[in-house]
């Protein structure tokens, strides 16, 4: 799996790292994250060299922030993120 949950920044923020995707894809990923149902963004300065650092902010007004909810949202976000990367790679391959 290319994206890994590394923990929580705050009670309602999940922190992920992507160690496999080239840093050059960062701006393309940012554009796609804008369409996600929850707020998600890339940190400009990653605490892990070479990794893309992504924050997913959960909306506590929608659901209780239980461990089950955080786990479910983490899994949904990972699937969405991997779909983004496949789309970007496909578009780049078509343009080369």
Task: Walk me through this protein's architecture.
The chain has 96 residues and is an alpha+beta fold. Helix content is 39%, strand content 25%. It contains two helices and four strands. It has a four-stranded antiparallel β-sheet with strand order 1-2-4-3, covered by helices on one side. Helix 1 packs across helix 2. The two termini are 26 Å apart.
Q: What attributes does this structure have?
A:
96 residues; alpha+beta; 4 strands
Task: List the SSEs and their pairings.
Elements: E1 3-10, E2 13-18, H1 26-33, E3 39-42, E4 52-57, H2 67-95
Helix pairs in contact: 1-2
Describe the structure concisely.
The chain is α+β, with helices and mostly antiparallel strands. It has helices spanning 26-33, 67-95; strands at residues 3-10, 13-18, 39-42, 52-57.
